[in-house]
Specification:
single chain; about 475 residues; alpha+beta; D-Maltodextrin-Binding Protein, domain 2; 3 domains; five-stranded mixed beta sheet; about 40% helix; globular
Length: about 475
């Protein structure tokens, strides 16, 4: 080997050794994120970011992050409490959970001489939708008033527990003596409902709608009846955020992109959630589709700030914490504001916007743009990527008749409560057929009865509406 090639070889070897040495001494930053995959309204802060590798797009690589290697870790949980344990122990940096377990997270950090902060809302309802109470399918219980003296289970210290306590208080009952409240996780409660071992179960997203969809429970109370805001959001260890603010913003930018993708194609990503988390796509679409049960809203609306304050106060009453945690200092909106700015979005405009994810569609029968929302109906066929939209339930049922006669397999049918717009599975609604043959959907039998009296109509269940002659349900 001549001198020229020996010199070149030495240079190559030196370069390799130098690169190896640089890599050996390169800083590695952990980004450990706790998710709740089955709590589907956390999807934009966890499951979708992970499955679509969105975080990689935004993690910083310049300035003090030049040459940094990232150790991104994901860990899935079924509830917020064990996630909090991992965060306080220093094994997680980020977590996604609801207002009540979030309050416990802040209290646990404070007790350990540390601090966590709520950095963003992910999804919520200023009325309280998403939480609910269900009973076994054959139960004689029709309303919460029928539960006095009964056994009801709930994931303790969850947002659903808070809803249950508010509902009990509204009845004028004593939670300690008028009901037997026991602690059960959703997966345990499902089996207990099937076996008739409990009279009712209160739970958070999506179980109050998932159990009825799976056919073994019936919802008797929706959180919206409590008119108490509820939300799920993202938290981070405050020391981590102070040290790596750019990483916190990067995580939130990834969540913002996940939200954009879900808005653009909710059916596609509902199917992805089903594949990963096992929650059926129609249930995912019930929440994430246009006009869904909850709003994917990343801004700190006053109602969500109050929800967190209520959670802190309620947990004190439950003697779950004696913390002096303050909601205003627990919430830190600097990171989500910066994420909005870097994403080219107007945070203050979003903060002022209370609208649900909009429906921009033409009627599948008439081809005309759909106006309004409270009477919208949708049909999702098994072999179609997107739902079919109809201006009202009458048109949807007429179309269903033709589709089924043509051999189509129906994945799900959705309607909206005529009074408040709550998105429903059609087979769980009550209907009022007026003298003209038009149909209006309601999730409460009592609301359907009241409306029927006003319009001289007849109250029908799903089976009765489905059995009507086609011309009887044609839109008028």
């Amino acid at each position: 080997m001549n001198h020229r090639y020996r010199k070149l070889l030495r240079s190559v070897i030196a370069a390799i050794v130098g690169t190896a040495a640089t890599l050996a001494h390169a800083q590695t930053i952990r980004v450990a994120i706790g998710t709740q995959d089955t709590t589907i309204n956390c999807a934009t802060g966890g499951l979708l970011i992970r499955e679509l590798h969105l975080l990689d797009k935004y993690l910083p690589h310049s300035g003090k992050y030049q040459g940094v290697r990232y150790d991104v870790q994901w860990k899935d949980f079924t509830s917020g409490a064990p996630m909090t344990n991992e965060m306080v122990a220093g094994r997680l940096d980020f977590g996604a959970m609801a207002d009540f377990p979030g309050a416990l997270n802040g209290a646990a950090f404070q007790k350990a001489g540390k601090k966590s902060i709520f950095i963003s809302v992910l999804s919520g309802s200023i009325e309280g939708s998403g939480n609910g109470i269900v009973v076994p399918l054959d139960s004689p219980v029709r309303t919460i008033a029928d539960l006095k003296g009964k056994t009801i289970s709930v994931p303790f210290a969850s947002t659903a527990h808070g809803m249950l306590l508010r509902a009990i208080k509204a009845q004028g009952w004593n939670a300690d003596t008028d009901l037997n409240i026991i602690t059960q996780a959703p997966e345990v409660a499902g089996s207990a409902l099937k076996a008739g071992k409990i009279d009712a179960h209160a739970d958070f997203v999506p179980f109050a709608d998932l159990f009825p969809y799976r056919g073994f429970a019936r919802k008797i109370y929706d959180g919206a009846q409590s008119h108490a805001p509820t939300f799920h959001g993202a938290l981070v260890d405050a020391a981590y955020a102070q040290k790596y603010p750019e990483i916190v913003v990067a995580y939130l930018r990834a969540a913002i992109e996940a939200n954009r993708l879900m808005t653009e194609d909710p059916e596609k990503y509902s199917l992805l959630i089903q594949k990963v988390a096992g929650i059926e796509a129609p249930v995912d679409y019930l929440f994430h589709g246009p006009l869904g049960i909850q709003t994917r809203d990343f801004t700190w609306k006053p109602e969500y700030r109050r929800a967190l304050s209520t959670a802190i106060d309620t947990l004190k009453l439950l003697k779950k914490t004696d913390t002096t945690l303050n909601a205003d200092s627990f919430i830190d909106d600097r990171y989500i504001r910066e994420a909005f700015k870097q994403s080219g979005l107007d945070y203050d405009a979003a903060l002022a916007n209370y609208a649900k994810s909009p429906l921009k569609a033409n009627d599948a029968t008439t081809g005309k743009p759909i106006r309004g929302s409270n009477d919208v109906a949708q049909v999702w066929l098994e072999n179609e990527a997107h739902v079919r939209d109809y201006a009202n339930p009458a048109e949807a049922f007429a179309a269903l008749d033709a589709l089924r006669h043509g051999g189509a397999k129906v994945r799900a049918v959705f309607v909206h409560d005529h009074a408040d717009g709550l998105k429903l599975f059609a087979n769980q609604a009550w209907y009022v057929k007026d003298e003209r043959g038009a149909l209006a959907a309601f999730w409460l039998r009592s609301a359907a009865n009241a409306y029927a009296q006003r319009v001289s109509g007849k109250v029908l269940d799903y089976a009765a509406v489905s059995a009507l002659p086609r011309q009887s349900v044609a839109a008028r």
